[in-house]
Amino acid sequence: MPFKQMENVTAFIQACRKLGVLEKDVFSTVDLFEAKNITSVQRCIFNLGSVIRRTAPEFPGPFLGVAQNAKVGDSKRQSQVLTQYTGLRQDVQEELRTGHNVRVAGQPP
């Protein structure tokens, strides 16, 4: 039974994302199921009530919250393969590759 309840919560979260609730406003399953962060659950429900007016105009109501008319979108940063040297600014990465401005501890500059 608990597994099915968690599946239902996960389905609700996925529906919120599809309807346009921003990722920052979506709670995680344990927030509700284990009552870890009820405030984030409430925030998600209020944001769903606001976003639904724009993303599902055929829904007649009732509505919860104020309509969100601003268009804000989440975007994922470009993924990269991680190595020992990735994740650094490009100029720092180039200095490491060429050895320019690189000092070794215990040796004179």
Automatic annotation (TrEMBL):
UniProt xrefs under PANTHER family: CALPONIN, TRANSGELIN
Signal peptide: none
SUPFAM superfamilies, A to Z: Calponin-homology domain, CH-domain (SSF47576)
Pfam families: CH
InterPro entries: Calponin-like (IPR050606), CH_dom (IPR001715), CH_dom_sf (IPR036872), SM22_calponin (IPR003096)
Protein name: Calponin-homology (CH) domain-containing protein
Domain Calponin-homology (CH): 1-53
PROSITE patterns: CH (PS50021)
Superkingdom, taxonomy of origin: Eukaryota
Organism of origin: Durusdinium trenchii
